[in-house]
Amino acid sequence: MNHLLTMAELTEREILNILQDAQDFANGKQLKAKEQIFVANLFFENSTRTRFSFEVAEKRLGLEVLNFAAESSSVQKGETLYDTVKTLEAIGTKAVVIRHPQDQYFEKLKDRVSIPILNAGDGCGNHPTQSLLDLLTIQQEFHRFESLRIVIAGDVRHSRVARSNAQALRKLGAHVDFAGPEQWKDTSMGGCFASLDELLPQADVVMLLRVQHERHDRKAEIMGYLEKYGLTKEREQRMKPGSIIMHPAPINRGVEIADELIECERSRIFKQMENGVYVRMAVLKRALSNILGGVAHELLV
Amino acid sequence: MNHLLTMAELTEREILNILQDAQDFANGKQLKAKEQIFVANLFFENSTRTRFSFEVAEKRLGLEVLNFAAESSSVQKGETLYDTVKTLEAIGTKAVVIRHPQDQYFEKLKDRVSIPILNAGDGCGNHPTQSLLDLLTIQQEFHRFESLRIVIAGDVRHSRVARSNAQALRKLGAHVDFAGPEQWKDTSMGGCFASLDELLPQADVVMLLRVQHERHDRKAEIMGYLEKYGLTKEREQRMKPGSIIMHPAPINRGVEIADELIECERSRIFKQMENGVYVRMAVLKRALSNILGGVAHELLV
Amino acid sequence: MNHLLTMAELTEREILNILQDAQDFANGKQLKAKEQIFVANLFFENSTRTRFSFEVAEKRLGLEVLNFAAESSSVQKGETLYDTVKTLEAIGTKAVVIRHPQDQYFEKLKDRVSIPILNAGDGCGNHPTQSLLDLLTIQQEFHRFESLRIVIAGDVRHSRVARSNAQALRKLGAHVDFAGPEQWKDTSMGGCFASLDELLPQADVVMLLRVQHERHDRKAEIMGYLEKYGLTKEREQRMKPGSIIMHPAPINRGVEIADELIECERSRIFKQMENGVYVRMAVLKRALSNILGGVAHELLV
């Protein structure tokens, strides 16, 4: 079963294969299902980027999309996630994309369902397609991961992105450090934890994390966040030549990053979103390889 | 006008024709619209199974689907159901699937609209496609309805499923009895009302009904429900050889049925869901026979 | 950039071109994208007609549709409209249809995004596709605009429709007057403001406006509205031969118009809705002319 649940479960080889497929799609390769294959998107948390990115990826692969919104489903009648997925399986769905607020929600599913699960984010846990699109964006820029210096800055403790990315980047040979407010420090992720000012001059990549208002109610702390912990115009000017800025979005403008930097020359923020589609096409191809392989026709444009 | 509103309006012949078409689809028959035909799904109540089952059925027939969610529509501005349906008709919709909390909502519509209405559940009233998928599941199992003994167990009084099924099963020659808590007894449906323990040993089919928390606020009663009225492992062992268990879902695990029975050998619960797609393809074919007939191509695989 | 934001920005020639394209579609002309082109519908306010009308128009043009519902998006995490649109652009969307409660929301977007925006209503401001479908309905009826007498009656002050229509109709040579309660009078729109009784006998078109409960909390005023300001059966009988009744819907039955007039011979209310699809096909064709022109095939049936 080709689930995609965490970055940890992927070998270096598997990661590089997915990135290669994604880059092929970025270069214009087309792959289209010739028969109807249904996939369902189950989003139990709000999302714009991830949800639409998956939907575009699915439709570009010629898949039929079922968009499941938790608020108008039988989940409201107390149905378990397992029963919901089994239902979708019973009516002919061949893969499910799931975002869910509960950490490791997939542990109760992964050995009991017979269709692949693509994890689109679990609580504060994993968000593997976000990591993969970050990796693709870095690879497009530097054509290697070895000895790159990556700084992940912000709410390290509550970030799905921080955890998944740190694991994967190190597996591929990069050096990962962290910056951010002391109370969001998470020593379980290794690396060095220092101030952005200290780490910034050596960084090839500064990955900013979102301040997640909706997960911890500390709005007061946002006052002054940019100056203390965020990427100001002044800090950006001390970045290395050729270094880049990334952010998983949605952005709190003027909090994690100064407004005028969002579309600056170093920013790859919108490039990341574009790459999200290619990465999701690649993981869907991987998940559906048994059935898509037989019925799709490939076209290298 | 080929509305599908209640099981009562269908003759035995019509029911058997729908089941035949559904079985053909189950066997792999394909029918695809060759032109764009729009259908709309109007769900004024939460649903997973029925909504997605209709959507999959529609897309397998090559229809264009409009998914209407009451919460973001002009219904919020006070628009009547009639005006909503007339609007959909005006913009080119050729059939509407409606689930609505009001019993017999369709009485105000059926003679005033010029497109077929497929009733996907009205309040505590009817749910004909659920009945049809139940019938298909029974027919696949026993290849007849005559003299089968069916026990419908649970919240008989508030169940759309109980009412529709009892009518249809008797029309086809089956014997239908009821079991459940005394306060949910409904003598208007005929048959015998007894304890599950009494009826179980003779039953070919035990159809469990959902305890509908959202319709009557009696959560206290759920305590001990399984032991008193539900299908326990012990009761299951007293069932006849070859007899089957059905449930319309969503299931309250450990309330109507013991957790470990949901996917047991006798259970047809997920088979019912699968059959839901074929039955809905069949009723859509019936509703759209005028236009689909002319533009679809059939393929018997 | 072929945005469609307001009626004011369209020249007489452009309006007539759009109407001509729309009439071609009404006559059965087909235009289908031969490649995948994604468009997104962003509705930040409830809508049935406009949203589904755009969706049907998009699908009839063979476009891939992304339906964005504000309530389950990152807008809930505080994302700006600009970032949402840039996100959709980054993942490959080629046009966005937006309804938003804020007047002139598009001012902050129009020069900063590189995909066309189709305004599906901004606050109390503009609603150009509603105006265009009104114009098409009038043109189908009278085959001219010059010297037609149009009366717009109702909540003139808060109506997107009143403002857009008055501008456009005058540009095309029609004479526009207003009627309605004194407190909803808006002298900034020119023309004469009088009672419906006074203006009705000369009118070729009576355009009724919706009493917008959700915009101003004056439910008390609805008591007696029909008799004082609405179109009663008695008033309808004093209308000119050949004159027509229009209403943008949703209708408050028995408030702006007597129930029995909604589908009377003079009423073009459902015709307006039908025309909404053709008009939206025409403005999508205009917005996407660069890419659709190259990849679509036209078929005049």
TrEMBL record, chains A, B, C:
Residues 3-140 form the Aspartate/ornithine carbamoyltransferase carbamoyl-P binding domain. It is an enzyme of class 2 (transferase). L-aspartate binds at residues 77, 160, 210. It catalyses: carbamoyl phosphate + L-aspartate = N-carbamoyl-L-aspartate + phosphate + H(+). Keywords: Pyrimidine biosynthesis, Transferase. It holds the Pfam family OTCace. Pathway: Pyrimidine metabolism; UMP biosynthesis via de novo pathway; (S)-dihydroorotate from bicarbonate: step 2/3. Residues 148-285 form the Aspartate/ornithine carbamoyltransferase Asp/Orn-binding domain. Its EC number is 2.1.3.2. SUPFAM superfamilies: Aspartate/ornithine carbamoyltransferase. The keyword DNA repair does not apply. One of its GO terms (molecular function) is aspartate carbamoyltransferase activity. It comes from the Bacteria. Carbamoyl phosphate binds at residues 49-50, 99, 127, 130, 249-250. Gene3D superfamilies: Aspartate/ornithine carbamoyltransferase. Catalyzes the condensation of carbamoyl phosphate and aspartate to form carbamoyl aspartate and inorganic phosphate, the committed step in the de novo pyrimidine nucleotide biosynthesis pathway. Belongs to the aspartate/ornithine carbamoyltransferase superfamily. ATCase family. Heterododecamer (2C3:3R2) of six catalytic PyrB chains organized as two trimers (C3), and six regulatory PyrI chains organized as three dimers (R2). This is Aspartate carbamoyltransferase. It comes from Ectobacillus antri.
